[in-house]
Write a structure and sequence with these properties.
This protein is 37% helix and 16% strand. It is built from 13 helices and nine strands. The longest helix has 18 residues.
């Protein structure tokens, strides 16, 4: 497969950090920019975390541009109970003097995608506020992206309410704009991401990854607590790494099976606000999404840990081999 150019819009967040490290380590992904949005924690922390992760894993040449600090219409929703007050669980990455790039994420997205129409895949793994504003201010972006993939939503139950997944619930109005924009949204939601869990066996495989594991992966997972990850005891089988699944869908599409559907976002329901109402029986001409319905979990972790081994080798970890 040829190298794919990508931009990641994110709200780091533990699983966002894992997704950024994976994108850096996968040899067929070329990460051209990171944009940040408020979500798991506030914009100041999501941006600081993006910079720290970027610098720690060794991709200082990738610009980080801050975006929206609040949702379009409603009060901010965060996930500190899950990701910790810092947003990175129990990880403590080195401080960095780096600053975000000048300008706003929305304008960066329009410029970076517009200069190479048809070449850049946009991956959104946080609330969709930045993307909605980009669609409104620069509508040409819809036809200029190569592909558009999100981590968000669910064809079944949610994780912050019975109906809604966090990234959509955090800004339903933005999500509604994005799904109605005229492009095909590849929705990698809870239906598959809850299967991508960092089990004890997976964590054991991470122990050979030197500083990457010791400073970021394992302490982040150790601090990945609280509710919001589906039914049953929290993290009984290990915490899920939701956001990595969206990036993996781009890197290795065969790992994540998708089905065409019509997706509408509920914005007014008293009990269902943020629900991604998914109709797999819609006529082909009415479908606006490809919805993830299955994932090869073993293949996923082989792919991800192999990418992490490449990152770890770049950090100077001793005796690092693909896991």
């Amino acid at each position: 497969m040829a190298v794919q150019k990508i931009i990641i819009d994110c709200d780091p967040g533990i699983d966002d950090a894992f997704a950024l490290a994976f994108a850096h380590g996968h040899p067929e992904l070329d990460l051209g920019g990171i944009t940040t949005v408020a979500g798991n924690v506030g914009l100041d922390l999501t941006t600081a975390n993006a910079l720290r992760v970027r610098d720690f894993v060794g991709m200082r040449d990738v610009p980080v541009t801050a975006g929206c600090a609040v949702p379009l219409q409603r009060p901010a929703l965060d996930a500190r109970a899950v990701h910790g007050d810092s947003g990175l669980g129990a990880a403590s990455l080195p401080a960095t003097p780096s600053q975000p790039a000048r300008g706003h994420a929305v304008d960066f997205l329009a410029g970076a995608i517009g200069v190479e129409p048809g070449q850049v895949t946009l991956i959104a793994i946080g609330p969709l506020t930045n993307i909605a504003l980009a669609v409104r201010r620069h509508p040409q972006i819809v036809s200029q992206v190569r592909d558009f993939v999100i981590m968000g939503g669910s064809a079944g139950r949610g994780n912050v309410t019975p109906a809604a997944e966090f990234n959509i619930a955090a800004d339903p109005e933005a999500a509604a704009i994005v799904f109605a924009a005229g492009w095909t949204v590849t929705m990698v939601g809870l239906d598959v991401t809850l299967q991508a869990r960092a089990t004890a066996a997976v964590r054991a495989r991470m122990h050979g990854l030197g500083r990457l594991a010791d400073d970021l992966l394992l302490p982040s997972l150790a601090g990945y607590t609280g509710t919001g990850h589906g039914p049953g005891p929290d993290h009984a089988d290990g915490p899920p790494v939701h956001d990595v699944c969206a990036v993996a869908r781009v890197a290795a599409p065969g790992l994540v099976t998708c089905a065409p559907a019509r997706v509408e976002v509920e914005t007014a329901g008293r009990w269902t606000s943020g629900m991604t109402v998914t109709d797999f029986t819609a006529a082909a001409g009415d479908c606006n999404a490809q919805v993830a319905v299955a994932i090869d979990t073993d293949g996923f972790w082989d792919l991800v840990l192999d990418a992490y081994a490449r990152v770890a080798a770049g950090l100077g970890a001793a005796s690092v081999t693909p896991c």
